[in-house]
Structures are given as structure tokens and as C-alpha cells.
């Protein structure tokens, strides 16, 4: 056979618990796989706790039935997707299985949904999704909204650190040609006796803008001629970004997991976790490669 230099096929991994809300993640994963000409691996994990709770004598018969039902459901849902699909139903601890399948398939992206909802639309991430974004070395897309159209209003939350640069690179790779903006929330010093005059605030803002321009100059992954607009707001990062995203109909916010100050301060700790919970739009979480195995 002649030698082929063709690049390996891209793979997107969808993880779903088959709940109705996770259908949003399925639809978005199909859309992205189609636009990227990627293979879509749809994964459902049967956790041991599900069978352990069964008290009827026939529980051993229900596990394979659950597997068959899950496989049929995914195959039916993806039958007319128009993309190359692989359906996998595995048993084990969800996080361990997802990490293993992501590595086996060399997935470039994991897509996950949010299964639970409370009154007034407050979204709560499932435990598996929270753990997933802490441990997996590839970007995780947490889908909350219905994918009515391709992403077209995208923000990268940034403190102009290396972690932010990985988030920019991920957006450029995942959504080539899609314009996006950098969003920086500037939290001013709170030392006693510091008076935040308008002149002082303008000075902080101008310094941040200059840092942002230098950050873009040093970001090699930007496409030719691409120069994202830099948005700088003064105040608490989580509340400001959440409000901005809602008012401006933002489709997607990308967040790096490590940073220096402000929005990315705690490596997917309290601030980034709050963004995941409070943002109404989809969130792309991007780890720095060398931090993928760190405990946080």
C-alpha cells in the first residue's frame, strides 16, 4: 500500500447521562463534529451505584438491558447526524471511564452537558463535570444553551497570563475564522487609604489595555490579521462577566485554568468554578498542558 501522509482524523468525545438537558450537548457536539469534519464518539457510562441500588432479584438482568437501551438511544439520536459516529456504553466510575476513553480516542475536545436545573434557571454542574474539568488534559466544553446556530459571539476571559493564551489558542483551533473578544475584569487594590479617583482608575485601565496589547503581540496562534478587541471592566470578575455575557447574548466563554490575578486566580478553584455555575452561556475550560495531572 502507498504511504499516506494524511493527518489523523479529529475526534470529539461527547459524554452524556441521556437526560433531556444533555440533548443540548449532543446537538452541539454534532454541530462541531460536522463543521470540523471530525469523528464523534458518544459515551454513556453506567456507574456501579446504579446497579447497586437495585433490590429486585432480577438486577443482574437489568444491567445488560440498560446497556442495550443506552446504545439504541444514542444510535437513534445520532442516526441522521451526518457525521462519523461511534457509540460506546461502558461500566465503571464516570470520571475514570471518560478519562480513559478520551485518551484511547485521542479526543481533541470533550463535550458535556448540565443535567440538573433549579428554580429561576440556576444551573448546577454535576459532580462528574466538575471533576472532569479539574483532571482532563484536553479542553472541556460545558453546554448549557440550545445550539440554535454556530458560535458567533465568543469571549475569552483573560488575565493576560499563559493560561489565558492556551484558552485563546483553543478558541482559534476549535472555531477557526470566528471572531472573539478578550474580557478582562480589573479588580483594583483595596489597601486602606487608597482613593480610587477617576484619574487613578483610568491609569489602571490604560495599563491593563497595554498589557493586553502586548499579550496579543506574543500570541502566535492568532490567525493572520486577527486582532481581538480587548474589553476591560472594573470590579468583581464573576458578577461582571456573568452580567456582560447575559446582556450581550454571548454564546461561549472560554476560560484558562491558571492565571495571575482576577478571573483565573485559583486554577479552576472558586472563581473559575463560580463562572461555570453562574454563566448562562456555554463555557469552554482549557487546562495548561503541564498542569493536567495537578491536584487542585
TrEMBL record:
The keyword ATP-binding applies. Keywords: ATP-binding, Nucleotide-binding. It holds the Pfam family Usp. The keyword Chaperone does not apply. GO terms for molecular function: ATP binding. SUPFAM superfamilies: Adenine nucleotide alpha hydrolases-like (SSF52402). InterPro entries: Rossmann-like_a/b/a_fold, Universal_stress_UspA, UspA. Residues 10-144, 151-287 form the UspA domain. Belongs to the universal stress protein A family. This is Nucleotide-binding universal stress UspA family protein. It comes from Kerstersia gyiorum. The lineage of its organism: Bacteria, Pseudomonadati, Pseudomonadota, Betaproteobacteria, Burkholderiales.
Amino acid at each position: 500500500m502507498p504511504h499516506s501522509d494524511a493527518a489523523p482524523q479529529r475526534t470529539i468525545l461527547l459524554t452524556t447521562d441521556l437526560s433531556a438537558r444533555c440533548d443540548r450537548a449532543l446537538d452541539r457536539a454534532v454541530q462541531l463534529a460536522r463543521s470540523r469534519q471530525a469523528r464523534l464518539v458518544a459515551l454513556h457510562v453506567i456507574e456501579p451505584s446504579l446497579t447497586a441500588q437495585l433490590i429486585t432479584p432480577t438486577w443482574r438482568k437489568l444491567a445488560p438491558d440498560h446497556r442495550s437501551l443506552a446504545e439504541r438511544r444514542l444510535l437513534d439520536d445520532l442516526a441522521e447526524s451526518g457525521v462519523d459516529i461511534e457509540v460506546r456504553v461502558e461500566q465503571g466510575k464516570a470520571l475514570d471511564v471518560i478519562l480513559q476513553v478520551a485518551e484511547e480516542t485521542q479526543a481533541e475536545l470533550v463535550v458535556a452537558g448540565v443535567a440538573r436545573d433549579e428554580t429561576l434557571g440556576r444551573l448546577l454542574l454535576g459532580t462528574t463535570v466538575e471533576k472532569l474539568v479539574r483532571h482532563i488534559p484536553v479542553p472541556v466544553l460545558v453546554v448549557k444553551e440550545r445550539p440554535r446556530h454556530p458560535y458567533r459571539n465568543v469571549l475569552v476571559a483573560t488575565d493576560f497570563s499563559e493560561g489565558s493564551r492556551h484558552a485563546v489558542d483553543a478558541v482559534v483551533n476549535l472555531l477557526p475564522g470566528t471572531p472573539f473578544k478578550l474580557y478582562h475584569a480589573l479588580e483594583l487594590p483595596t489597601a486602606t487609604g487608597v482613593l480610587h479617583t477617576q484619574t487613578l482608575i483610568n491609569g489602571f485601565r490604560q495599563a491593563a489595555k497595554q498589557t493586553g496589547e502586548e499579550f496579543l503581540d506574543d500570541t502566535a496562534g492568532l490567525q493572520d490579521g486577527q486582532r481581538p478587541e480587548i474589553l476591560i471592566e472594573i470590579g468583581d470578575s464573576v458578577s461582571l462577566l456573568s452580567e456582560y455575557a447575559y446582556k450581550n447574548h454571548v454564546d461561549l466563554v472560554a476560560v484558562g485554568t491558571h492565571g495571575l490575578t482576577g478571573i483565573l486566580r485559583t486554577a479552576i478553584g472558586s472563581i473559575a468554578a463560580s463562572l461555570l455555575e453562574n454563566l448562562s452561556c456555554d463555557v469552554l475550560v482549557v487546562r495548561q498542558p503541564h498542569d493536567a495531572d495537578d491536584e487542585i
